[in-house]
Structure formats: C-alpha cells, structure tokens
Automatic annotation (TrEMBL):
Its EC number is 2.-.-.-. This is GPI ethanolamine phosphate transferase 1. It is a multi-pass membrane protein. Belongs to the PIGG/PIGN/PIGO family. PIGN subfamily.
Length: 490
C-alpha cells in the first residue's frame, strides 16, 4: 500500500509539472539577423521618461479648478508633439511593462519563476542596440537591461534599494534623486573629455526611471494628495531636464523625447491585473522626428476620455505598449530589437513617406525573421510526415509580399507599402503564435489520457482489494457456520 501511495504522489507531481511545461514556456527565439532602416534617422539621441505606476487619466485629466496637474506635458500635447494612450497587457507589473517598452515583446511567462524581477531567457532591447545608453532609477529595473546587453555600453546609476519604502512619507525624493543625478552627470561631462565625446555621439539613449508615483500610489492610493503632488513634481522635473538637454546640445533639434508609464494602478493602490486603470497608460512624444499636434473637429473612440480630459480637438493616437520600442528604434536609426513584436506606429512620425515605408518594411522583415526561425525550430523536432506548416504564410506568399512591397517603394506607392507590410506583420504574428502553441493540444491530450489511465488503474486496484476483502469475510463466515453446525450435531 505504501508503494501505491508513493506512486500516486509521483504521478500527480508529474501531472502538475506538465502544466508549466505546456503553458509556461518562453516564446523567445534566437538566431535572427538584425534589421534596420537604410535611411538617415531624424534624431541623434533619445530621452525616455518612464513614470512608474502613472495612470493615463491621472495625467490627462484636469483638477477641480480646471487646471492640469502636469502643465508642461499638457502644453507639449497642444503645441509641440503627439499623444495617446499606451495599452499594456497583463500582468501589469514593472518588469513586463519595461520589457514591452524597451524590448518590444510582452511578458515571457517563464519569468514567473523569478517573480517577474528578471527574464530567465536572454533578449535583445533598444538599449542593447544603441551605441550608448545611460540610465538612472530603481535598482529593480535598470540591471536587467544592462545584464543582457552585449558589451559594456549600457551604464546604470541607481539609488540604494532601502530608499524604496512603500510606507515612506515623501516618495517624491526618488524622482528628485534621478533628476538631480542627471543634471550632475551633464555638468560633469563638460569637464570630462571622454564622457563629453560619448554623449555627443549618435544613436544614444538616456533613460530616466521615475518610481515615486508608483510608491506613493501603493502607500497612499492614486486619489491621494501625495500621488497627485508627485505628478506635479515629475512634470516640473521633466521640464527642467528638457530645458537642460536643449541648452547642452545648442537646440540642434536632434533630440527626441518620450514620456510614458509601465502600468497604471487601481483606486486602492494595486496593480497586476487587467482593469483599465491598470492597463491604460499615457504616451506623449515630441522633438526630432515626431509629428506636431494635429487639430481635428471630431474623433471616434469607444470611451469618453477625450471629453473628460478636454482634449477633443487634439488628435489622439493610441498604441499597444510593445509598439513604442520600434518607434524609438526608427527615430535614432538602430536595429529593431530582435524579439520585438511591436508594430511601428507610423502616424507618430514626422518624416518623408519614403522613410515611413522603409521603416515599416524593416519592421515587417524583422518580425518575419522570428517566424522563420520559430518554424525551422519546430520542423527540426517534428517527424516530417506529422509536421503541419502555417498555411496562411507559405514561403511563396512571403516572397510575393516582400517583392510587391519593394516594387511599391520603387514606384513611390508608399501608402500601399505600409498597408502591405502591416498585413505581413499580422500574418507573421499569427504564425508565431501557431508554432508556439503547436504541441499544446497533443501534450494536453496525452496528459488527459495519462490521468484517465491512472484513475482507471487506481479504481481497479481498489475494487480488487475490496473484492478480496469480501471473499475473505465470506470464507470466514462459512467456516464459523460449519463449526456451529458440527457443534450442534455433537
């Protein structure tokens, strides 16, 4: 009986582990060729502000007096750049959010084994593809991008982890630390020839991770005065940093600024799930290569945010969070992150139609590369007569779409190029999902059959034991009756 229970425990453990083997596998593949747009980029440098835990409505809405909590950002929306909502995905945590923003792919579910703190599988990112990246902020976020970078061109500056106290009275100090250290960095660069030379290179990135809003949201909730005051402090800090950049680089018009958030937050100060307050984050862009504000008379969306925020007349351009990565790479002319599944939002670009078409074509080829590698890997581990390819994107169809897109570029039919490349991207993404879940049904059926088999075996064993017990009892009863009968005869 002990052997039976031990065997049962082992089988249930195997069935439990099979869930992770089937559903918690990394979607990432390696071996792709880097792809970049073969035209001069509009920007030499990019500044990325990520206000951790900032909800879209908290930034865009006006207060009870009709004033903006972030007057500088609102002025950008109305006079200098483009804006919209960035739609995140579950889990709405900091690591998956930053990976989507900077690497262009959504959470690798295998990272749950490390508590969403880092990715167990190496991946490419905007920082890795840049010539140099300097980053300031939380020690929980910055190291994961420096760790996976090839070479030593990603520099991180973090405060002590003890500063991240969710019960702190003044979490704005986390953001003040970042702004002050960026200013000190540029002041020091004026007296350091080596550093001065590096920050005047092209294809460079500056990343400011601002954790104060998230910390205040956890400690005091988004409706609190502390959370809203922190938004004002961030707005003031961004204004100072932008002014410093423009002054340092002599207003050369070669800097692009991106302001966004990794995730939002519920009214009670949590995040991780899929409520709109957690998945809707702000996106404001301005500077080199970014389209200026577009005045419109009417816009169609499934929500009433435009009226609530009094932004009905400024064109809103929504994106998926992973789309921000290809946007940033195209702006500074570095290769698209190899694992990115983001679709370039060309409506944000203020450039020639040729540049938009070439960038979209590069985006399509980059995602198609992943599809080809994924298909090859699956084909190698599947018996030839059992392999079923993704029929919607055959080799001939890939060739025809790419050839047609190149022909459209040659004949300056740029709108057709963008549409065709988007079609190819959607097919490639479907194909990636198809091959990632290729064995899921087969494995699931095998687990079910195995589980049913074990239940049947256990049931038969119990029935057999019960039958033997009944037989034993019946035999004993017969013996006793026989003894009684003999005694009565005597």
């Amino acid at each position: 009986m002990l052997l039976f229970f031990t065997l049962g425990l082992l089988i249930h453990f195997v069935f439990f582990a099979s869930i992770f083997d089937i559903y918690f596998t990394s979607p990432l593949v390696h071996g792709m060729t880097p792809q970049f747009t073969p035209l001069p980029p509009p920007a030499r440098r990019l500044v990325l502000f990520v206000a951790d835990g900032l909800r879209a409505d908290a930034l865009y809405e006006l207060d009870e007096n009709g004033n903006s909590r972030a007057p500088f950002i609102r002025n950008i929306i109305m006079h200098e750049g483009s804006w919209g909502i960035s739609h995140t995905r579950v889990p709405t945590e900091s690591r998956p959010g930053h990976v989507a923003l900077i690497a262009g792919f959504y959470e690798d579910v295998s990272a749950v084994a490390k508590g969403w703190k880092e990715n167990p599988v190496e991946f490419d990112s905007l920082f890795n593809e840049s010539k140099y990246t300097w980053s300031w902020g939380s020690p929980d976020i910055l190291p994961m991008f420096a760790k996976g970078a090839s070479g030593d061109h990603v520099y991180t500056y973090s405060y002590d982890a003890k500063r991240e106290d969710f019960g702190a009275q003044d979490a704005t100090k986390l953001d003040t630390w970042v702004f002050d250290n960026v200013k000190d960095f540029f002041h020091h660069a004026r007296n350091n020839q080596s550093l001065f030379s590096k920050i005047n290179e092209e294809k460079i990135v500056f990343f400011l991770h601002l954790l104060g809003i998230d910390t205040n949201g956890h400690a005091h909730r988004p409706s609190s005065r502390d959370y809203k005051h922190n938004i004002k402090k961030v707005d003031d800090g961004v204004k100072e940093i932008v002014s410093m950049f423009n002054h340092f680089y002599g207003n050369d018009g070669k800097t692009t600024f991106i302001f966004t958030s990794d995730h939002g937050m519920t009214d009670w100060g949590s995040h991780g799930a899929g409520h709109p307050s957690e998945t809707l984050t702000p996106l404001v862009t301005w500077g080199a290569g970014i389209k200026y504000p577009q005045r419109v008379s009417a816009q169609q969306f499934d929500d009433a945010f435009l009226k609530e925020w009094r932004l009905e007349n400024w064109k809103r351009l929504d994106v998926n969070q992973a789309d921000i990565a290809p946007l940033m790479t195209s702006l500074i002319g570095v290769p698209f992150p190899l694992n990115s599944v983001g679709i370039l939002p060309v409506d944000y670009l203020n450039n020639t139609d040729l540049f938009k078409a070439e960038s979209m074509f590069t985006n399509a080829v980059q995602i198609l590369e992943q599809f080809k590698v994924k298909m090859t890997q699956k084909k190698e581990v599947t018996l030839p007569f059992l392999f079923t390819p993704f029929k919607l994107l055959s080799d001939s169809k890939q060739f025809n779409i790419l050839r047609k897109a190149r022909s459209y570029i040659k004949h300056r039919k740029f709108d057709e190029v963008v549409s065709l490349c988007k079609e190819l991207i959607h097919l490639a993404l479907k194909g990636l999902s198809y091959y990632h879940t290729y064995d899921r049904f087969f494995l699931g059926v095998n687990v079910v059959i195995g589980f049913v088999g074990w239940i049947s075996y256990a049931s038969l064993l119990i029935i057999k034991s019960h039958s033997n017990l009944i037989k034993g009892v019946s035999k004993e009863v017969k013996v006793r009756l026989e003894n009684v009968r003999i005694q009565m005869m005597v």
